[in-house]
Predict the structure.
Amino acid sequence: MRRHKRWPLRPLASALIRSRFCFSSATETVTTEAFPLKHVTRSNFETTLNELRAHVKAADFVAIDLEMTGVTSAPWRDSLEFDRYDVRYLKVKDSAEKFAVVQFGVCPFRWDSHTHSFLSHPHNFFIFPRQELTFDHPPAHEFLCQTTSMDFLAKYQFDFNACIHEGISYLSRRQEEDASNRFEMLYSQQGVVEVEDFKLVRLADVLFAERMKNKLNEWRSELLHGGPNASSQSSSNGLTQSTETVFYHMRPALNLRGFTSHQLRVIQLVLKRHFGDLVYIHANDKSSSCSQDFVVYTDSESDKENLLKEAKDERKRVAERKIQSAIGFRHVIDLLSSEKKLIVGHNSILDIAHVYSKFVGPLPPTAEEFVASIRDHFPYIVDTKILVNVNPMLHQRMKKSSTSLSSAFSSLCPQIELPSRGSDSFLQQRVKIDVEVDNIRCSKWNAGGKHEAGYDAFMTGCIFAQACSHLGFDFNRPSVDFAHNEKLEKYINRLYLSWSRGDIIDLRESHSNAENWRVSKFKYEKIVLIWNFPRKLKAREIKECICKAFGSTSVTSVYHLDDTAVFVLFKNSELVSEFLKLKEQLESDDGPVRVIHPLSKILEGGNTGAADYEAYKEICSSHISKVLFSDQAETVGVKPKTRADPKGETSSETGRKEKMVAVTDKASDLIDSFLANTVKLEAARIN
Amino acid sequence: MQLKMRRRFLSSLAASAGNSKTLNHRRWTVKQVTKSNFKSSLDEFRTSINSSDFVAISLLNTGSYAAAWHRVSAIDTPQTSYLKAKYAAERYQIFQFALCPFSLHASNLTVHPYNFYLFPRDELKLGMPSYSFSCQASRLTSMAREGFDFNTCIYEGISYLSREQESASKFLSGNPILPDPITAPSSPSTVADTVFVGRIRSRVKNWRQSCLDSSSKTGDDDDLVSSLRKLVLGSEQYGSRLCLTIDVCSERQVQLILEMLTEFSDDVVPLLTASKSRGTQAVRTVFMSSKEDKDLFKRELQDLEDEENRRVRGFREVVDLISSSQKPVVTQNYLSDFTSIHAKFLGPLPSNVDGFTRSLSSAFPNVVNLSQLMKEICPLSNISNLPAALSSLNRFFAPVDVEVANHGCAVNPDEGNQMHGQNVVMISQLFAKLSTIQKSYQSPAQSNEDLQDLDFEEHANSITSNDENVKVWSKNSRRVSSENLVFVWGLSKKMTAAMLKKVLEKSSHAVFAQEFDVKYIDRSCAVVVFWESGSSETFLREVNNEEQLVGCLREMVAEGLRVAGYETYRRACRLGFWEADLAEALDKTLESSETDLDSDNKPSDIIWSSELAINFDEL
């Protein structure tokens, strides 16, 4: 019910927003107020964008954070123990493609050497993929909502009305291109109004054509010879149809209203046949979406050409303006990209993937291409989750608390979380951070709303600033270049591809592709995926069955993907193909062997599917998302099979392995040793 | 084109009708129901429905179709229409469910309008009622324009479980449940089984004995002894009763224990405890002091379960009320409304339309499809626009006085949200008018068998109606067998239907010498309609035989033109290739080698109407 207190329920979201803005501007004099946050919707977007430009240009770094409508489109799409890096990328890609971003926090930070503090400008953008372009019909835009995520947003008082009613729309670069191309095509067609010759068959058409011909003739001669009354003639039959003399591009014109498109075609035909100097113009109105039709008088052939060109140019201008305004929130992304600022995020692979898919274009099919492409748009990205986990000193400062955004914030920046708590002496070594919203600067506030993207971005930036201070940055030195500072070199452009597995994706230019993938502890070719077995079977029973058939040490472990599927990790890869072969044999056998064979327990029901790891990748790459993995496998239609050439498969696999090992040997920085430690730890835990 | 114009006119009319000024006198107070007032409203609703003769419903979903060709159109048979509706019903969410029990006496319409906000809250953390749902951005935008309050819906919406989900949740909610009575003895036991059963039997025996002892000499033991005994025997309390928990590690063991426990069925009742992830975690045996105690215990358990179910069921209680009342349900859009209702509140949708009709009629035997009723009386009007539909009936003399009979609901004119769910009153009103006009007021409800041919009348089998090609009620539409349609794609982007027709006419192929028609289904794919049977086969054969092709048709094939018969389209729908472009879906279908095992192979009729061309304004 807190919600009611904050924003009394009113039907119009604009009212809500206004009241919230009052909030942020009310921080003027009072020392402890709610956290000042600039909420941005489409009504104040234009002005805010201009201010933001200046802030970003001056900024040392920009922190971002996103709120989405969901994370996983199916339970098994969550990050799992057995995910190879390429599968993990496919899962990230699926999430970014399916869910919508509803809030985008942008918070530029600038070191103010006069006050010896960072000045931050937290912005909270509500965005919504509204379709702004109407001259063409791109495929209906759809997004997925995960019910638990929506519930989560609701728990933190997310304002859905503000988002849907007033959210800022956007076009990705690709969408913009497509829109311009489509428009180009559309208007090149329209430009040359080529009336197809058709015969007037119906009596009504013939009569209508004759009537229009007379009427146009009358109008034309009145124009030329100065008739009695050239304005507003209502049509004879008293219907809604009307013609009115107006001026179109400084030429006398008839404004046609209330005609059906068929009648308009007949009029065009009449013009073409009988009137060389009257031109038919179909114009899209600038302000409204409705179009208008004119018959325009031209006094010469060249004038006619000019007129057509003018009309064409105008249409083009209108469309370009429309596309420009439809770009909407992407202007902010373009700004960050063109300024080449250091982007700071917390566990931000999903955020970056969302940014790419919403504002650049469709995500590339592989992680390698993604890495290569993201560099062009965001050359410097730093992830605070990497920082606090990989740097031993920072890791220690976290005092073993979790490295989630909010706990990292309270461990590293207690002075900012609750600035009203006074100034202990130990706070002296803390970085001071001020907030400025709408030109009002303040340094004291109550804790802000967590999971409000703008506040989360602010927290992320604070963690980064504090971490830099711990790393020994001297902010007062002129021109502290964060992006090129050697103290940050080990951390910059590295993201957790999967936090739970510790996979790190490296975006650095010098390391071309995914070579820096950490050597995985699983040999994926040893894995078999089984689904649609009898539901009551548990992992342990499945392991027993297989061990009965292949020997007690054949299976290393069995791991549930969800209720309907398991991964079976065999001792070696030969067992994988043996298992798949045996399964096939048993299925084709109707004899008693089938019933008494130990595997029959798994195959019971006759729908059990099994495949190797590559099939799992294939299933993950599908854009379909069924809730149960077994349904997914059936729908994607992976045929239970062994790979045609397992030899070839393994050799390429070992090739990559060698390469990976080589890189690990070569690199000997903190990260790798740290990771090696965790691998050992994890290995120990498993054993 | 004419139609397009008319539609635009109608929609502008609707826009003006939507203005509060013109419609002010027609605004009714609709009771808005959210989580907080659901319980009280439920009783009120029960009274309303009992005192009414009909129930009008109107659903507001988060989307209707993702791509142009996904919407039900003229070229669809009942089966493909159903598959399209099914696809939508499974993906989108119902945000608002407006209901209006009403009765009609002479010209007096008494309505009880309710508007329920729904949101699928995963209260049990089991991915139910739904793990996720799709939203069509444009739909949400238009809902926003109409002032829909998303915060109320998501914060305060009522959750629900379908009938099937409820029975599944019973086990997963963590509450102990009574096992189903054992029907057949399990498969022959192994040595291990015998040992296991023996061990458990002696454990239960000892425990039971101790229970019997303690109940016979209550109070004799001091606390220490009794607690020691409990510790040794592993005995616990279940409520006020003694119980023993036996952990199990497979369903097989559960079966064995339950079989063994029948020996003690007089005073021991087994309960199953589910583990959080899957399967049974433990069997609990509860000691009963007497036969009466046992009955009491079972009744308690049943009450507990009922209470839990009611909590979990949520809005479905309302659906169950309608279903059990057997009152005729009036809907504006039969297929989309009832596929949604079936998917959300009954269970997963069957794979074909017959299964759906059967399954639905067991829950809702009486359904009135308003659009069908409307078509019969006023064939040219567009039912999707209710105010326009109502005004189109003005030429009939059918006065209807509306009286809102919702009591106890505060009318606050300042609160705009009272206005949501107006549609459902208009549906009642429209139904009242139509039935007055039809004079079939005595028995306006159609039973479901009637509905089958009422709703899908136009799709009746071609064999019976081959001689009559033209439908009476619309001079522009013709009945044509689905086998006479050929899908054409891979065309140049600038091609229009008229151009394509011209090209085909010029192609000097025999099949195009006769009359035929061309329409675009979406941007990527057109359909060619032959009036003569057999022409489609000839055309398909010739295009697929590239060597013998001549002229521009050959050129087009070389440039990527592809063709397919209706069967491919049917298969695309059945296999669920819901791509954004129909062309892509058909390509995929042709690639997939899966043979069609479906019995839905017989040709069906569709109504071809020049009016039914795809209107891009509406997409």
